[in-house]
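The data are passed on as follows:
___
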Amino acid sequence: MFEPGTRVEVRQRFDGRWARGFIVVSHGDDGYRLKRPSDGSTLPVAIPSADVREERKRQGMWWA
């Protein structure tokens, strides 16, 4: 379980890729409540735990 404030990635339903740029707000029986720090918006639905992972460092790029 991720603590509030943890930076995470979310699996996209369309293609299964992982999207970066979310922060855990809370965790409940229905999954994680997340927000986007880019605009401060909290997502309107909880994201299932299976579709959330800790944000990974980008690899292979010297500037990442």
In short: Residues 7-53 form a domain with the SH3 type barrels. fold (CATH 2.30.30). The chain is about 0% helix and 40% strand. The first strand starts at residue 7 and ends at 11. The two ends are 27 Å apart (CA to CA).
